[in-house]
Design a protein that fits this description.
This protein has about 350 residues and is α+β, with helices and mostly antiparallel strands. It has helices spanning about 35-45, 70-85, 95-115, 135-150, 155-170, 180, 190-210, 215-225, 245-260, 270-280, 285-295, and strands at about 1-5, 15, 20, 25-30, 35, 50, 130, 305-310, 315-320, 330-335, 340-345, 355-360. The protein has three domains: about 1-55, Alpha-Beta Complex (Molybdopterin biosynthesis moea protein, domain 2), CATH 3.90.105; about 70-295, Hypothetical protein af1432; about 305-360, no CATH class. Helix content is about 40%, strand content about 15%.
């Protein structure tokens, strides 16, 4: 399979990866012939990249970070929890959260097990979803990324469980934000942004009242928009005043936000999202956490076409775990743009070779 931009798909291309709705139903099935009408529909829905079948890359495997079954169960569980919290009175929210506590713990444990069993670096770019409820897919993605960072930082099982719950519930305060603000496709006004920022405090107040959720989990909701240099919200905390788990979640939160498909904004590729994190490292994000993230997540996902510093072109075949910017490349063109008999180059042992750009044409 090969990763391409939806703006460059030619009519007649064969879809290589099933596209799902957020409820788990299929929007477009793998193997479908992409007509001009279907390509236009993908673009209208805000889907930026898809995988297509390609003779030269038909053996390339693109494996999801977690199973389809677990993703659907996790998003369904979160959707039910968030919906029940929104519908309930504040005094009964504690009961709703109590009821779902064990389910969340089980889901986080299963996510952690699947991450540990993953033979390559994680990528969520393979999980092409069309969603009307971005908050649930985003919360799940942030949870997967945060747990991967936590595992790289050698957190113990109890710490990973709290981190996972904090990540899964970091945006729960948004259920009380006006949907017209939450789903506004344009830039928020100053007044609207002030309202949006209250989701951190709302989430904190909701979680800290429940004995099933530790103070750490509540502070993940409270502090995930704080930044090391004091420019974040709601309190403008600095440095060590921000809980480490909230700092981990802030890295995962920003990365997923900028690399996700949205109707009003083109998604960045993973390496672009990572560059954004590095640009804020030290000032906004803890460099150790950014490095742990880099060591966990595929910067150049399988199937993406890349150009090297010697002008050769190739397709990423597989990942080197913990060397996520040094994948294995199948060379398909030489430095003069001429097709060649394909051969592989492993960037993990050829450190003088670097990727300089990605080509999604």
């Amino acid at each position: 399979m090969r990763l391409v931009s939806t703006t460059s798909i030619q009519a007649g291309a064969i879809l290589g990866q099933t596209i799902y709705r957020d409820n788990g139903t299929v929007l477009l099935q793998k193997g479908m012939n992409l007509t001009a009408r279907l390509v236009s529909r993908l673009q209208d829905q805000g889907i930026t990249y898809v995988y297509i079948e390609d003779e030269a890359t038909k053996d390339i495997v693109v494996k999801s970070a977690i199973s389809e079954k677990l993703r659907h169960e996790a998003t369904s569980s979160m959707k039910q929890l968030f919906t029940d919290v929104r519908k309930s009175e504040m005094l009964s929210n504690s009961f709703v959260l109590d009821k779902e506590a064990k389910s969340l713990t089980d889901i986080i444990q299963r996510i952690m097990e699947e991450i540990n069993d993953h033979e390559e670096s994680l990528t969520l770019l393979t999980d092409v979803y069309l969603t009307d409820d971005y908050i649930f897919q985003h919360s799940l993605n942030v949870t997967i990324y945060a747990l991967a960072i936590g595992a790289e930082l050698k957190l113990n099982a109890k710490e990973l469980s709290d981190l996972g719950k904090g990540a899964m519930l970091h945006d729960i305060g948004k259920v009380f934000i006006d949907p017209n603000i939450l789903q506004k496709p344009d830039k928020l006004t100053k007044k609207e942004f002030e309202i949006m920022k209250t989701h951190t405090t709302i989430g904190y107040d909701l979680l800290r009242q429940n004995y099933n959720y530790s103070s750490v989990i509540a502070h993940c909701a409270y502090q995930h928009h704080e930044r090391l240099n004091g420019t974040g919200y709601p309190r403008g905390l600095e440095g060590k005043d921000i809980h480490p788990f909230a700092q981990i979640i802030s890295v995962a939160d920003v990365f997923d936000a900028v690399t996700s498909n949205r109707v009003y904004r083109k998604a960045m590729l993973p390496h672009e999202g990572l560059e954004l994190l590095y640009s804020g490292a030290v000032d906004q994000f803890d460099i150790k956490m950014v490095e742990a993230f880099k060591n966990s997540v595929a910067v150049y996902p399988n199937g993406i076409t890349v150009e090297l510093n010697d002008q050769r072109q190739g397709v990423v075949v597989r990942q080197n775990k913990h060397l996520c910017d040094r994948p294995v490349i199948r060379i398909i063109k030489d430095g003069m743009n001429n097709p060649v008999e394909p051969y592989t180059v492993d960037l993990s042992n050829q450190l003088n070779i670097t990727i300089t750009k990605c080509n999604l044409g």
